[in-house]
Write a structure and sequence with these properties.
Blueprint (H helix, E strand, L loop, with lengths): L3 H27 L5 H182 L3 H42 L10 H4 L37 E6 L7 E4 L9 E9 L9 E4 L7 E4 L9 E6 L4 E5 L9 E8 L4 E6 L2 E6 L13 E4 L18 E9 L5 H8 L8 E4 L3 E5 L3 E6 L6
Antiparallel strand pairs: 1-12, 1-15, 2-11, 2-14, 3-8, 3-12, 4-5, 4-11, 5-6, 6-7, 8-9, 9-10, 12-13
């Protein structure tokens, strides 16, 4: 890049050239006439100088332009430097942000891997439970098929017996018809015999009246009276057998009328020989009634119970008083780890408070699953739903303390961390973020009516349940509202049951187990 001194030197050279030109023009005018070739040469030089001047100006203009360009380049370089600095700062901030995002991504990736492992474990557990359930379903289906085949065989046997009874009934009816015909013939014979007896008595009375009249004419009044009394007594004695036959005949007819419309298959009482004074010899040729099946006498039966509407409870447990001796144990704990759970039961209490309904304990923790209530001086308003101590939720119990039957369902899901509490088909409480991802272990001790402070023991009398439980059932899944409503209205139990009252191992203390079938019969 040319400096300022070079430019000044060029300007000074141009000034000298211009001065020389002016002096040359004056000398040329003086010697124009004498030196004409010299002027032409000078003209050529002037033209050359002019071209040189133009060229010089062009070069100077280019130099000036180059100088301006160089100045602008420095400004542009400064601008580029500033922009580079800003870009560097932005890149540095982006790198910091990217590093932070990468660290966060690594953290969440690790967390996701842990959750994936847990989910894989849960899925494997669920698959195992599903396989066991399928196996159990196959076993149940086989047992049901066997029971169905046995029932079919029994039904066929019953049909055969019914057909046999029908044939016997027809034979009995035929025999009864024959006996009725024989009875009618005997009645006709009895009537004819009565007529013969009455006519014989009349003839005897007429024949005896004639000699008695002749004899009375020869007797005193006292003798006549005595003889008259004797004759009347003989006549009465002769008339008595006919009246007895009529009374017995009338009683036999009434007995036949009473027995015939009520039980056609019953045999009428045979007419005794003493009733007609003649043997029933003509009935010996009739076919005898069948003796294969004896018809039992009609005994006084109890009045039938009214049909129930809620008939899925099977049995009831009665806890009569508060005692640490009153509790119920089951044969085993939960067969597998539970990620979902539903517990439903009918309950009735007249104690004014609700004690502990359910307690599930393991060696690791004695409060793995508890529906805990306690008798205290203050009025009870809630019970504790515990899953994995110390996590619990409070459930209202006010509607359950009116001494009547109520249906209760408690449902929990670790997949969503939610719980639902139903009383008489209505949702009374619900919540979330309750032991999400937790699982209830298997192999524990399940107790009804007491709260365990150790496996199978450590009871407190203030925590005892007093009242009745009917239809207690536990499921290994979360029931839907429709299924809860179906249970409360007497429909069949949904699939997935893990505990019912049929799995009870022992009933302790004064607790009583009553088979009632329908809730209306559980009194």
């Amino acid at each position: 890049m040319p400096s300022c001194g070079t430019v000044a030197w060029l300007l000074l050279l141009l000034t000298c050239l211009c001065a020389q030109r002016g002096s040359g023009q004056q000398a040329g005018q003086a010697e124009a006439g004498t030196r004409k070739p010299f002027f032409e040469r000078l003209r050529r030089l002037e033209e050359q100088f002019r071209r040189f001047q133009e060229l010089t100006l062009t070069r100077l203009q280019g130099i000036a332009d180059n100088y301006n360009i160089s100045y602008n380049i420095e400004a542009r370089f400064q601008l580029l430097t500033d922009q580079y600095t800003n870009i560097s700062q932005a890149i540095t901030g982006f790198q910091d942000t990217a590093a932070s995002d990468l660290n966060s991504l690594k953290f969440w990736t690790k967390k996701l891997q842990k959750k994936s492992k847990k989910l894989d474990l849960k899925v494997s557990a669920l698959e195992k439970a599903l396989n066991e359930k399928n196996k159990q379903t196959l076993r149940d289906n086989k047992e049901r098929d066997a029971v169905l085949s046995s029932l079919t065989q029994e039904l066929q046997d019953q049909r055969d017996q019914i057909s046999s009874l029908s044939s016997d009934r027809d034979q009995a009816r035929a025999g009864l018809q024959g006996l009725q015909d024989a009875l009618r013939s005997q009645e006709a014979k009895v009537e004819r015999f009565e007529q013969q007896v009455s006519s014989a008595l009349q003839n005897e009375a007429l024949s005896s009246s004639e000699p008695s009249a002749q004899h009375s004419s020869n007797q005193t009044p006292e003798g006549k009276a005595t003889e008259t009394q004797d004759t009347d007594g003989e006549q009465l004695q002769q008339q008595k057998p006919g009246k007895k036959l009529q009374v017995k005949h009338f009683k036999g007819r009434q007995l036949q009328e009473r027995q015939t419309p009520r039980t056609p298959a019953l045999r009428p009482q045979p007419v005794k020989e003493t009733q007609v004074n003649q043997p029933l010899q003509q009935t010996q040729g009739l076919p005898p009634p069948p003796q294969r099946h004896k018809i039992p006498r009609q005994q006084q039966q109890e009045s039938p119970k009214k049909p129930g509407t809620i008939c899925n409870v099977k049995s009831m447990l009665v806890f009569p008083n508060a005692s640490t001796e009153n509790y119920v144990t089951f044969t085993k704990g939960f067969p597998a780890e539970l990620h979902e759970l539903s517990v439903c039961t009918w309950l009735r209490t007249g104690a004014g408070y609700l004690g502990t309904l359910l307690s599930y304990a393991t060696e690791e923790n004695d409060n793995k699953l508890v529906l805990h209530g306690r008798n205290s001086s203050a009025p009870q308003t809630s019970m504790h739903f515990v899953i994995g101590d110390p996590a619990f939720r409070e459930l209202p119990v006010g509607p359950l303390l009116d001494r009547g039957w109520h249906h209760l369902c408690v449902i929990w899901s670790s997949i969503e961390g939610k719980y639902w509490y139903y009383v008489d088909r209505r949702l009374s409480a619900a919540g979330s973020k309750f032991q999400k991802g937790y699982e209830v272990p298997s192999g524990g001790s399940l107790v009804l009516g007491q709260e365990q402070d150790s496996v199978g023991g450590g009871f407190d009398v203030a925590e005892s349940f007093v009242g009745s439980l009917a239809g207690f059932t536990a499921w290994n899944r979360a029931l839907t509202p429709g299924e809860v409503s179906g249970i409360a209205t007497g429909k069949g139990l949904p699939r997935g049951t893990v505990f019912t009252l049929d799995d009870i191992a022992a009933v302790h203390g004064d607790v009583q187990r009553v088979d009632c079938g329908c809730l209306e019969h559980c009194v």
